[in-house]
Amino acid sequence: MLVFMNEMSGMIFFVYICIIVIKKINVLKMKALVSVIMGSTSDLPVMEAAFKFLDSQEIPFEVLALSAHRTPDEVAEYARNAHSRGVKVIIAAAGMAAHLPGVIAAMTPVPVIGVPIKSSFEGLDSTLAILQMPPGIPVATVAVNGAQNAAILAMQMLAVNDPQMLAKVVEFKTSLKQKIVKANDDLAQISYKFKTN
Ligand code: C2R
């Protein structure tokens, strides 16, 4: 009996490992719909909010470090080929003199969302560098360190042509409402002599 149970648990463990490996292989075979680029791995802690959101929505994404200043040739090659690799939206994050999103936008038909990273001057330098694009080359700019909003906007862009993605957007927006409903329930518990609700 004990031997049989040991064999069974071994078998279950083997099947479990197989499922994990197959899932991972399937993800590796997927084409990224969203490409997340950052000027440096020092931007990574901020950008993790975007990865978490895309992962939670099961949107295939890739992550790369590229710099218009330090790797201009690689940026050009990346930007010129992104659309033919199936990338639908690019999120580009950079701090300081943040030329990366604009340079990428100049070389791709794919919409670019810029995330200004707060690394100096409270992020004002990178915000202006990303936001103040000349006519003809727009970069959709989110708030300083607004990585999650960049990912949400990317999902909304994907939803334009995809009813399943649109359903995810609607579900996400509904979840935001629930948060405020709960907040008001919590606030109702706070009591003060002159508080009327
Ligand atoms: P390091 O921490 O590597 O010195 O980078 C990066 O995004 C980062 O926030 C400091 C900051 O420089 C930014 N960076 C850019 C570009 N490349 C790197 N703004 C670019 O090409 O625009």
Write the layout of secondary structure elements.
Blueprint: H1 2-29, E1 34-38, H2 44-56, E2 61-65, H3 72-81, E3 89-95, H4 100-106, E4 112-117, H5 124-131, E5 140-141, H6 147-159, H7 163-189
Parallel strand pairs: 1-2, 1-3, 3-4, 4-5
Helix pairs in contact: 2-6, 3-4, 6-7
This protein binds ligand C2R.
The site of ligand C2R has 18 residues, from strand 3.
Describe this structure in words.
Strands 2-1-3-4-5 form a five-stranded parallel beta sheet, sandwiched between helices. The protein contains seven helices and five strands. By secondary structure, the protein is of the alpha/beta class. It has a domain of 133 residues: Rossmann fold. The protein is 54% helix and 13% strand.
Radius of gyration: 22 Å
Report the bound ligands by name, code or SMILES: ligand C2R
Element-by-element helix/strand order = HEHEHEHEHEHH
Task: Count the DSSP helices.
Answer: 7
Shape annotation: globular
Classify the secondary structure makeup into a structural class: alpha/beta
In short:
The protein is of the alpha/beta class and 197 residues long. The chain has helices spanning 2-29, 44-56, 72-81, 100-106, 124-131, 147-159, 163-189, and strands spanning 34-38, 61-65, 89-95, 112-117, 140-141.
List keywords for this structure.
alpha/beta; globular; 5 strands; Rossmann fold; 197 residues; 5-stranded parallel β-sheet
